Model the fold of this input.
Amino acid sequence: MNNLLLTPIEYLKGVGPKRADTLKQEAGIYTYWDLLNFFPFRYIDRSKFILIESITETDNAVQINGRIKSIQEVGAKRAKRLVAIIEDSTGQIELVWFKGIKWVKPTLQIGAKYIVFGKPTKFGRKYNIAHPDLEKVESNKPLIGGLQPVYHSGDKLSNKGLNSKGLENIIKNLLPQIEGLIQENLSPELLSKFNLISKAKALLQVHKPLDFYEVRSAQMRLKFEELFFLQLLLVKQKQIAQRKSRGHVFKVVGDLFNAFYNEHLPFELTGAQKKVLKEIRGDLRSGIQMNRLLQGDVGSGKTLVAFFTLLMAIDNGFQTALMAPTEILAKQHFQTIKEFVEKLPIEVSLLTGSTKVAERRIIHERLENGALHLLIGTHALIEDKVKFKNLGLSVIDEQHRFGVAQRAKLWRKNKIPPHILVMTATPIPRTLAMTFYGDLDVSVIDELPPGRKQVVTQHRFDSARLTVFGFIEQEIKKGGQVYIVYPLIQESEKLDYKDLMDGYESITRRFPKPAYQVSIVHGKMKPADKEMEMQRFVSGISQIMVATTVIEVGVNIPNASIMVIESAEKFGLSQLHQLRGRVGRGADQSYCILMTSYKLTEDAKKRLDTMVRTNDGFEIAEVDLKLRGPGDIMGTQQSGLLDLKIADLAKDGQLLQYARNAAFDLVSEDPDLKNPENVRIRQELVNIVRNRPNWSRIS
Ligand code: ADP
Ligand code: MG
Done:
């Protein structure tokens, strides 16, 4: 890169050492180049004004062109505010500041013309605009139209005069200096194929567009570039992993597989299950280590697919592991699979935190001498003491609960790494899957076993509780079981706990012993007590399970037919969907009842509507992404990958797909990026990896 672009930001006209410090701390801007890559997040159309008389409550933000009529400080010390009245030919409106009065006041001048931008709020019959964006119109200059960029700022930057307008000014000082210095980093082929403008042009236009057409073409170019390099990195990583990771070759679909398939499977596999098994089978005989993510909604039959995959490995003489995030789940898998293998010559053991030392010793021994074919368990499986004779395949259930590092640990359990199948019941929006698991292969089970009835979901206000209790009673009389789930949110733990206990009380009063048994499970209980209560429910002794969200993860109780979620407005969409997945596992019609108060935010309403409208986990995941954004969905731990400057994974799905295809095409045509026309691309990739070392191994 040209040296001038790497000039420390303090040397830019209008910056200096003090502002430079704030720019570094608050916005990560160290150099000219960083500043150029600090993009506006929106633009104000300076050519459109609204007349004050036609402002309405529904206006999100308005732009007014008027004269300041009066300026006044109102109120006592603490509650002091600055009020200016601005008028145009049709009326007046108040501008109000509660903060930064001493900065704002000197910029206001009675009788001068200003362009005001902000959100109007109604007070009685009058409107005002709090903390508007304000720009003085010089009387000798004609009003220039065009677009004004708006930059993210903050208190600390604003206090140094670097509000959006201030940032705009220093960037305008920089733009004339960079002419001729910006190098292209995409190939001519990509530019023409996707009809993209040059990098140099895009950087100028994004900061100083003439019209929205220029904004769009600049954004499109910059977004494509950002997504393209992200994908290219992932595709390259996958390529490297495949070159390095020799995998065990599973030559045969053997006797165990066939015996189970032909003689013991009580039902036909769904089309989706067959399709996925074919994909897995392809991986397992390819000679390259499998790294496959299996996505499928709750109840779609992932466990069975996992079991068939395990059989393939065992058939080929290898040991296998199945890891689950909780003890309850591990046990449940153990029981399910023990039933499956009853008539098959397969040795299975369970290893969890509570496995007794003596038993543990036997398991270790049988693992090392190869007697054990399948070990099911929790995190206990990845402890260093656990050594396999020849681990060929690891299946990880509910993948999102395991960190990246833990996944890696399982790999290292063998000289040749085992094949890895990760399963998740939390559907991940396509764009996120492409990014987070960009170096994994993804299989999707998008079909439920036949005869499954859709869970009927209803939203009820708290006032309907007696009716809901009546409904519960009927269902229990018919032999059903009921979950009643309470939220547990860290910040208000005490309050939530009280809600839970109050709820439990009123439920035991409404459903008294001995006719009814009510179980309760929450985070403050000892593990053994939890386990016991859970077991009471699993075995059908209790009909009602009152719980906090600890039951969220895949427990399978086919008899449960009602899921009541209390304070449903406090739950996120994916959590609600997970919880709903606990019912509807048997043949009977199941119900999910979302209880809420009357006070609901817009977002909460959208979440509830979505739940009532659809059972499709992927559709729900897409809505969730739009409501929460990618960082919140995947957890902050991994959000480094989502530090996108300009692209938005919630909105730019199409462009992401193009960028990913382009990256794949490129790597398949020119695996080492050696063609002269791809030189720039390679250089850029090297820079990215050098600047972000934490990307070197994403999964
Ligand atoms: P998941 O792990 O995807 O949530 P499971 O594997 O636990 O789902 O399957 C849920 C239930 O569906 C289990 O009781 C399982 O036996 C049953 N099941 C799985 N596949 C089929 C199928 N093809 N036909 C009928 N029932 C199936
Ligand atoms: Mg499952």
Summary: The pocket of magnesium ion (ligand 2) is lined by residues 302-303, 425, 554 (CB under 6 Å).
